[in-house]
Protein 1
Amino acid sequence: MNYNSVFFINGRKISFSDPTYFIADIAANHDGDLERAKMLIHLAKEAGADCAKFQHFKASGIVSAEGFEAMGNQLSHQAKWKKSVTEVYDQYHTRREWTSVLVETAREVGIDFMTTPYDIEAIDMFSTIVPAFKVGSGDITFREAVVRMAETGKPVLLATGASDMEDVIAAVEMIVNANPNICLMQCNTNYTGSVENFKYVNLQVLPTFAERWPGMILGFSDHTPGHSAVLGAVTLGARVVEKHFTDDNDREGPDHSFALNPKTWRDMVDSVRELEAALGDGIKRIESNELETVVIQRRALRLTRDIQAGEVLCSNDLEALRPCPEGAITPMDDLKVIGRKILQDKKKGMVLAWTDLG
Ligand SMILES: C=C(OP(=O)(O)O)C(=O)O
C-alpha cells in the first residue's frame, strides 16, 4: 500500500515531525450570512487556525426529506432543532456563489481555505480551488465522492467517526489506490457537546491506526468540550486537528453550541504548541537548560576535615554534599575512593578529582 508520511497543504509541511495543523470548521456557523462567514475567517486566523473550513452541501443533495420525516426528525443532536432536518440544511448551507469572496478573504487574511464537499458537483467545483479535501465521517461509504476527491491528487483528510475498522480499511484503500496523500482522522460524531462523550472518543484508536498503517499521517476531528481530547490526540501522534469554530456559542444555528470560540480556540492552539515543545524527541539526555541545575542539585564527595598529603581516605573523611562542580568525584564512586592515598593537602569541604588520588 502506497502512502506518504509527509505531504503539503498550500506549502505547509504536514508530518509527524512538524507542528500540528489546525482546521477551524466554520461549517454552518455563518448562519447563512456571507458577512458572518468572512468575519469568521478573520477570527479563525486571529485565534491561530491554519485553515478555515466550510461544508458544501445542498439540502436536496445530502438528506432525504421523506427519510427524516419518517424518523420524526428527532434523532441525536437534531432532536433540538426547531425545524425539520431538510429545512435546517437548507437554511444553513454555504452558498456556492460565495466561493470567490470566501477564497479571496482567506487569501487576504493568510489562512488556508478548505471545504468538505457533500456532492460530486462540489468536489469538481473545488478541485482547482482547495489545497486539500476533507471527507466528513458520514461520507466514508460514499464511494464515488471519496474516489473523486482522491483522484484530484489533493491530500485527502478522512474522518472516521461512527465507523468500524472494516469501514476505515475500505475507505483508506479507495483513497491510497488513487492518491498517497492521506490523513487518517479519529473522530467521534456525537455532536451533543456532552461531557459523557469523552468515554467514546477512544484516542487509543490512533496507535491502532499507526500500527496498521505505519507512518501514515494521523489526525483528530473533535467535538468534545475543552482541550483534553485534543491534547491527548497530539500526544498520540495526531498532527491535523479539526474543531468547530464560532464567534458565539449562544447563537441558534446547529453547530454553535459545541464549537470553540476565538478565546477557547486560542487556548487550544497555545496549549498544543506548549505540548509539542514539551513532547521532545525521546532521547534521554541532560538538556541544555539543565547544565547549571545539574551542578547545584547533584552531590560531590567532599572532605569532612583538613587532610594532608599521604593520608589514606576512610569513609568518615567523606560526605556527599551539593554542589557538584564539573570534574568532581560523585558519591556514585565512593567505594572507589575509600582506601586511596591523597596526593596533596586539602581543606575540609573541598571536592576531590581523580588526579588528587594515588
Ligand atoms: C462533518 C464533518 O467532519 P467530521 O466527520 O470530522 O465531524 C465535515 O468535515 O463536514
Protein 2
Amino acid sequence: MCTGSPSSNGSQPEETNATTEQQPQPEQEATEQPLRTPTHAIVGAAKAEEILAEYGSNLKLLECNSQVSELLTIIRDKNTTRSDFKFYADRLIRLVIEESLNQLPYTDCDVETPTGAIYEGLKYRSGNCGVSIIRSGEAMEQGLRDCCRSIRIGKILVESDANTHEARVVYARFPDDIGSRQVLLMYPIMSTGNTVLQAVNVLREHGVPEKCIILSNLFCTPVAARTVVNAFPQLKILTSELHPVAPNHFGQKYFGTD
Ligand SMILES: O=P(O)(O)OC[C@H]1O[C@H](OP(=O)(O)OP(=O)(O)O)[C@H](O)[C@@H]1O
C-alpha cells in the first residue's frame, strides 16, 4: 500500500532518510496491485453514520485518502526511523492543523482586486489562540505557527499516574483574554482521554466556553472519544484516526527520549 518508506512487503525493512530522494518504482509494480482498504478508512467512510450516531456531529475525522493512510502506516510502523517518524508526523500534523483551522468560525469579507472588481471572500471571525498539552502537544505547535504566524500559544502540563491513568494538572499558562478567544487545543494521542479531560476542565475554569474549543488530535481510541464526547458534548474534535490501539510511543519517538 505504501509508496514511500518503509518496506511494506514483509522483507527486511529499509532505513530511509526523509531528506534522501526516493528512487522511482517500476510503473507495472505500482499499478497492478489493488489497494487494500485501510482500517481507518472503514471507520472513517463506511461507518460514518454509526460514528455520527455513537459520538455526535462534533467528532470529525480527517478525510480518508491514500496519502493520509500512508502517513498513519509509517508513524505506526515500529521499523520507522526517528528521522522519518518526525518528518511524516509533521506532515500529518500539518494536515490536521489545516483542517482544524477550517472548523473555526469565519465571516464574510469583501476585498477589492487590482482590476477594481470586488471579491466576495471570508476571514476569521474573531481572535484565536493555540494551547498545547505538554509534551506531545508541543509537537503540533510548529504546524500551527506555519499557518498562523504570530498566534499566541498557551500551555498545559497534565501528569498521569502510570498505573491508575488518573490525571492532574500541574501547570497552565494562557493569554489573559483566553476566555474571549477560539481555542485550538493540541494533543496528538488520546488513549483513555483523561489527559484531555483535565486540560478542557482547566480551559473552562479560565472562562473558555466548551463550544469555543477545537481539539486537534492525530490518534484517538473509541474509548477516549466516548469519554470526551460524553463529558463535553459541545467540544469539537478533529482526529485523523479512530482506532482501538493508540500509538503511545509518539512522544518518546518524536522527541527522541525514553
Ligand atoms: O488519553 P490518555 O490516557 O490520557 O493518554 C494520552 C497520552 O498520554 C500518555 O503519554 P505520555 O504521558 O508519555 O505523554 P506525552 O507523550 O505527552 O509526554 C499516554 O501514553 C498517551 O500517549
